[in-house]
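User: Can you help me understand a structure? I only have the sequence.
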Amino acid sequence: MKPMKTISLLLSGAAVLATSATMAMAGGDFPPLAPLGEPPIPSDNPQTDAKVELGKILFWDPRLGGDASTACVTCHEPDQGWAFSDDLSRGYPGTVHWRNSQSVINSAYLGQLFWAGSAASLEKQAPSAAKGAVAGNGENDVMEARLAFIPEYRERFNDVFGTEWPLIGDAWRAIAAFERTLIVNDTPVDLYLAGDESALSEEQIAGMELFNGKAGCIQCHNGAQATDEKYYNLGVPTAERWQDDGLAQVTFRYEILAKGVTQEMYRELKEDPGLYFRTKEKADLGKFRTPPLRYTLYTAPYMHNGSFWDLEEVVEFYNAGGGSNDFTDGTMASSKTDLIKPLGLNEDEVENLVAFLEAFSGDELEVEAPKLPPYAPLD
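Assistant: Let's start by predicting it. Here is the structure, written out as tokens:
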């Protein structure tokens, strides 16, 4: 693993003035973009080198799942942006997932995980994925028993957590500890905001002014992670695979039934209800959490259903004022955010804005895959 790089959090006076001026152009008082510091560490799961190493091995181990075929890394591949480079993520064998896989890079800074914010921490995210029916499909007792039949795990869990036998809850804590080391905080944007005015090109600086001003991106993509972690319906078009992929359609119907909708909605829905699953408020149909912009250069396709395959497509979508779906045309609810409207960007401005978005990514984070420990009979 490459060593974590940390940069100064002190903005230069020039950067502060530029940020303030362009925020004013956007017509609102939003948290400015900021460089990332160290990730927050929960007091009930402190970091240790041994815990991080254990979590790394478990992140790669498919035995933390139903049929021992699907690991965390299956849907969060390092060479695919620590995500999955298809519109919908991989699913448990015999299924396909129903949403786009989000990167785990810098997820340590987020207060809400998953597209609809259904997990409040990495410790809660890990089991939700490993046990989800169309993801890992694991069962606690089966996964825990497998760990117990692996001598190296018994030794490592005892060393880290002081337990005689591996406990599944400790496995999630170890994975969360490893994920908190997957940090990229030395991007051109970080360096520029910390005072290095040479870190961004003229094109990227022009894109930053558009981001904070005419394009209005700062309204939702603000702060150090470039997300307000709020929920919006942008009119993202329907997932194409739900139209012609029978397996994806079956998964979608299963999910909306399992997560709870009315019988009428079950018969008529052709869109992902998003935040509605958590609130059961029709005003929240089709709303999803603002995704962070960091590391996005490597995480295409974009949006909750992978509708757009490069950053230029994303910018053109916003430039056109978003789109429409069943939740924005009056069929179900009228909840498209009024923050999204035609931007009037010309071709050069689109290119500048894309160039600035690319500057949120920096170098790819490479981690060598661990060797998985073998089973052995219990003594």
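Now, to help you interpret it: The chain has 15 helices and two strands. Confidence is low (pLDDT under 50) at residues 1-27. Let me know which part you'd like to focus on.
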